[in-house]
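Hello,

I think I submitted the iron/sulfur cluster job twice by accident. Can you confirm which output corresponds to this input? Input:
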Amino acid sequence: MSDKLIVIEKRVYIKTFGCQMNEHDSEWMLALLEECGYQETKRWEEADVILVNTCTVREKPEQKAYSIVGRFQQLKENNHDAIIGIAGCVAQQRGEGLLARMPTLDFVLGPGKIHKLPEILRDVKSGERGVCAVGFENGCPTNLPIPRTRQLRSYVTIMQGCDNFCSYCIVPAVRGRECSRPSDEVLAEIDALVQRGTKEVILLGQNVNSYAKNNPGELTFPRLLAKIDEIPGLERIRFTTSHPKDLTEELIEAFGTLEHLCEHFHLPFQAGSNAVLERMHRGHTREEYLAKIRALRKAAPQISITADVMVGFPGEDDDDFTQTLELVQAVEFDGFFSFKYSPRQGTRSAQWQDDVPPELKQWRLATLQELQREITLKKNKKLEGTVKEVLVEGRSRNSPHTMMGRTGCNRIVNFPGESGLVGELVLVKINEGLQNSLRGELSR
Ligand code: SF4
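Support: Only one job matched these inputs. Its output is below.
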């Protein structure tokens, strides 16, 4: 007997915090619920099921998730049948503790148990209160439905979890140890997505370049990319996130050889000082990082490089911070995500004194961001007069007569055009480089 719920005209509202992995998990949860007869609503007030998919990598999104769940609890007062669940990394980390803290919560669902969602809803509907499904099973979940929420650009998870145990990072605790999906399953999913209109795939994983390292006989990540590159109809391949220590020569070479691999590499460096990197347990030095960037630029001179960087890690002194600024200056990133360190319970660094004062963290963050703003603007201005291939994604948010798309290097380009261009690869002459985007016109 099928254990799928048969429900007609039920509505689910999903609020997602955090990274692309979480966004994709939400897409998976929605796809599972759609198979059970649910429809997505963007209005939480009319939902029968509310899911808050949480992130615990930093403190801010975690606190936001708590406050939003508190707001949704009002719904319970008007609609006693509404079901409220917390999913994601906070669910995995806090588990039963969330049920104690929020008595109106119906269930808690960790990222390793997403496939159990229909079953959990069935249990809650039949009267079970406070269901807690956390932990991990052996290997990545298989046979999850293919989300249909995205068309042109689709996420495809190729691996989950992380074995690196950086001292500040909660991921290995909340996402489990590394596991990779079989390549034939990944390829079949991408094939199916292309049949539905996908032109660009973004391969996801905490550390994609160690794909299949625990699966003897499986394709390596560069070989998987080569197979994906052969899928007819697929125009672009991107991936995120990578770890510098696992960036191999074979992967670097792929940028020079694979036709559809976008010239963009997101390579977190986190800090510019070897002393800080060592305390972070990153497994690479500043010199090794810079050597990998040089090799990437040799293989693909136009490649855009983005990163993640943190300020205010325990023990970071002025000299360490200066080294981070120098590294940013030396690499001239195309952009980065930057954060202030905050201790996450359950990590090694949380046991150390958080000794950089908040005002100093804030100053360092602002200084770093200002430097990067100058670099980004300079690089965008340099593109004026060039012609770029752009995948048109839709109308610009700011003007109905302007279309928006992305270059292979992941820069946003706005240009006058018609909506019939959506999904097309067009050539755009860049007329103006701005801080966060480029402006241009169709090149004839
Ligand atoms: S590589 Fe480090 S920072 Fe990245 S997910 Fe793994 S443990 Fe966290």
